[in-house]
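Inverse folding, one chain.
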């Protein structure tokens, strides 16, 4: 709609410009617009939208229209219509002070932004006889200073003008702006040019008082009022002598700006609904992505809501949310920050388990659907063991396990958990349960022992039962949540969309480019081409290391490990990046084995309390054809040069798409492979010791493949702080010594692809491997077959699947 307004305005102006006039008059230059401008173009409010200095168009944040009238002695003396969109501007001005009215038109473009912008424009009159070329630049090296330069040239009239300006913001924001500007024409001496100084004060948000004093003794005084998407301003220009004053009126319509209505009249009068249906993911494709919500988007939305003075209540709909326990903890932590800012939080839940209820329990008011159910049974994790399946298929497997807790291959070699694996899994589950129990009890106001009794003596709760157990506060539907605002927040509230939050819709209040902090995602299996995509991730990290504007890096790790080469390639790139700027690791749901390898070189590691981390160790094993080929009617044959060349050669399994060796390694060959496994383990331990700045013997005590919760890892020196992505970003700011009040720009890498290929796949797949084996075990089986006998820093395939 706004774009159409701009287009129609430009079209109308162009048609108007085609009308004829009886005589040619010289085009006015920059000095002619002093009555319209309360301040230099780059110092306050983007001036006349590129009409005087086109470089300001880079700082226009949306379609905008301005109408200015200047009256002198009760008559219309000058008027202008100015339209703009980011980097584009068009305007027209009619000057009635000459013998004949002169109507001039300017079209301009700009490029750049942030710290430096430049633009160019062309002007003409309605007679077609006058032409004007002009250009300009704005430099904003820091948030305290703005420097502008513009030059005008009319070739047919042999007239030139150069103007310059400087703006100062002592406080770093637009509360107080001091400025000076001047211009000279042709061969005019600098001392004889037009010069002025002034300032703008914003005593109340959206209200500016502006004053300018000119070298010739003239002065202007103005007042501007922003109401959001519309602004109004009035300015009086008084000459030094007894000549008539100019009175200018300005109306602006466009993207919302900070204003008195939002900051004062609507303070505490709005609520923000957030629908969380779908999966919480790290990145989404740019087009046609069916994924639910980006974690960073949700976290930043909650942060913006906490800072917006209009928001009194944040209501989250947890129906259909798909989120891991660790990511739910991060969202819960951010909701707690919303409460600490003085806002209320409402959570709606219908069918909830331990994770969803843990997330909901942080709210001031928990609403449960009248047909809903809470299933709070505790936590369980287990495995599907495939040894018997492999035996029946005729596939042999040997587990080469030399480290007590490195249990990744048990699914192929055993029929039940080893005692070591049982020990580490139970310890992690107990930590996870304790986190949820203590946080739920604190939020709901009952004791941890009472929570234990609910879990062990009931477990499943219908709405009325959940009310009696003090797990929820009321029963209702999501569509009725706005009615609860009367009791929760003291009255009806205006609904806000996330895009309408102040930090999102208002243009930046600071000059210059915001310092950047890069968030780099290392997500999925450690692989050279898939998962973390180590080849590309290495390049991204090395490029970021050279970007001067990027002041710090946060690497978000959510990986169960895999290929040691892929892990080390990325870890070394992080090490090189760390030599030039702070690198903070933020661990997500899983960051163990190869995932911890990715983490160990960070300046600091931030983990959620329940993150699965550690597992410093490697595992190896060997699959071979133990009769499968004969049962399937398959056989293989080969020729070889080299005594061990056939090691790993065999048949390729249908459906699974993996090659199964025909034979086991000889004793001699197995001994050599054992040396590889033990050597890589020692290398892993030494690298952790180097990255964490502790002795290798100290690492050995907590290694042997043992997994730890984030909380347990912190007490053992594997993790520095407990927190989420927002905490890692805050720590990155501190390590980069960025000003506490300065806003940053978050840059996310790798850049997601254009289209998610899953969108193009059929909804019903033909019978295939996923119908034969669970997908986690299938991926692991392929990994073992892909790297036969090689040491692998990888977690068990099912470990993060907790119910």
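Residues assigned per position:
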């Amino acid at each position: 709609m706004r774009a159409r307004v701009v287009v129609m305005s430009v079209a109308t102006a162009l048609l108007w410009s085609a009308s004829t006039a009886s005589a040619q008059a010289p085009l006015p230059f920059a000095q002619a617009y002093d009555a319209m401008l309360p301040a230099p173009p780059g110092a306050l409010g983007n001036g006349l939208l590129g009409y005087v200095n086109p470089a300001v168009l880079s700082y226009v944040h949306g379609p905008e229209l301005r109408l200015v009238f200047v009256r002198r002695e009760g008559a219309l003396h000058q008027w202008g219509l100015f339209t703009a969109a980011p980097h584009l501007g068009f305007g027209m001005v009619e000057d009635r002070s000459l013998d004949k009215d002169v109507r001039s038109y300017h079209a301009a473009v700009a490029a750049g932004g942030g710290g430096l912008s430049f633009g160019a424009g062309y002007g003409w009159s309605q007679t077609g006889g006058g032409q004007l070329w002009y250009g300009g630049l704005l430099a904003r090296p820091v948030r305290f200073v703005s420097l502008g330069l513009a030059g005008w040239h009319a070739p047919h009239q042999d007239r030139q003008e150069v103007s310059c300006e400087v703006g100062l913001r002592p406080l770093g924001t637009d509360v107080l702006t001091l400025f000076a500007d001047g211009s000279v024409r042709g061969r005019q001496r600098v001392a004889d040019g037009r010069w002025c100084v002034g300032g703008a004060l914003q005593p109340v948000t959206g209200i500016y008082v502006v004053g300018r004093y000119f070298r010739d003794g003239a002065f202007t005084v103005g007042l501007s009022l922003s109401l959001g998407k519309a602004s109004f301003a009035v300015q009086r220009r008084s000459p030094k002598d007894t000549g008539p004053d100019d009175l200018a009126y300005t109306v602006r319509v466009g993207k919302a700006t900070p204003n008195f209505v939002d900051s004062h009249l609507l303070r505490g009068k709005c609520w923000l609904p957030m629908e969380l249906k779908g999966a919480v993911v790290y990145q989404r494709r740019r087009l046609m992505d069916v994924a639910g919500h980006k974690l960073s988007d949700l976290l930043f939305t909650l942060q913006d809501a906490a800072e917006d003075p209009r928001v009194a209540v944040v209501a989250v709909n947890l129906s259909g949310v798909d989120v891991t326990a660790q990511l739910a903890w991060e969202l819960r932590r951010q909701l707690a920050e919303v409460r600490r800012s003085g806002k209320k939080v409402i959570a709606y839940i219908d069918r909830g388990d331990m994770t969803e209820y843990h997330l909901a329990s942080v709210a001031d008011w928990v609403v449960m659907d009248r047909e809903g159910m809470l299933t709070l049974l505790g936590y369980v994790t287990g495995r599907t063991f495939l040894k018997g399946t492999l035996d029946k298929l005729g596939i042999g497997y040997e587990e080469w396990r030399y480290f007590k807790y490195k249990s990744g291959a048990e699914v192929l070699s055993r029929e039940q958990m080893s005692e070591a694996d049982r020990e580490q899994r139970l310890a992690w589950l107990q930590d996870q349960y304790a986190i949820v129990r203590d946080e739920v009890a604190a939020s709901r106001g009952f004791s941890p022992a009472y929570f234990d009794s609910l879990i062990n003596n009931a477990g499943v709760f219908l709405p009325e039962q959940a009310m009696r157990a003090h797990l929820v506060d009321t029963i209702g539907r999501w569509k009725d949540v706005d009615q609860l605002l009367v009791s929760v927040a003291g009255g009806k509230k205006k609904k806000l969309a996330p895009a309408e939050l102040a930090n999102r819709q208002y243009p930046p209040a600071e000059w210059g480019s915001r310092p950047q902090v890069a968030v780099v995602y290392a997500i999925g299996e450690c692989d050279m081409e898939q998962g973390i995509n180590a080849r590309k991730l290495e390049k991204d990290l090395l490029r970021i290391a050279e970007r001067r504007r990027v002041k710090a890096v946060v690497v978000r790790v959510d990986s169960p490990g895999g290929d040691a080469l892929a892990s080390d390639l990325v870890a070394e790139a992080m090490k090189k990046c760390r030599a030039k700027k702070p690198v903070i690791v933020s661990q997500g749901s899983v960051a163990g084995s190869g995932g911890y390898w990715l983490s160990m070189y960070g300046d600091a590691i931030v983990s959620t309390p329940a993150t699965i981390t550690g597992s410093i160790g490697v595992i190896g094993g060997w699959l071979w054809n133990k009769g499968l080929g004969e049962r399937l009617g398959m056989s293989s044959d080969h020729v070889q040069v080299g005594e061990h060349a056939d090691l790993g050669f065999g048949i390729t399994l249908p459906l699974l798409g993996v090659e199964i060796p025909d034979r086991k390694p000889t004793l001699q060959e197995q001994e050599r492979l054992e040396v590889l496994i033990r050597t890589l383990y020692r290398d892993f331990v030494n690298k952790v010791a180097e990255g964490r700045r502790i002795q290798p013997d100290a690492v050995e005590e907590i290694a042997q493949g043992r997994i730890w919760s984030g909380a347990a890892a912190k007490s053992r020196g594997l993790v520095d702080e407990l927190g989420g992505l927002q905490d890692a970003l805050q720590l990155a700011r501190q390590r980069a010594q960025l000003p506490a009040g300065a806003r940053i720009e978050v840059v996310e890498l790798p850049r997601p692809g254009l289209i998610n290929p899953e969108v193009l796949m059929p909804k019903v797949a033909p019978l295939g491997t996923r119908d034969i084996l669970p997908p986690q075990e299938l991926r692991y089986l392929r990994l073992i077959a892909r790297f036969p006998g090689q040491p692998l820093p990888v977690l068990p395939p099912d470990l993060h699947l907790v119910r």
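The two ends are 48 Å apart (CA to CA). The longest strand covers residues 102-113.
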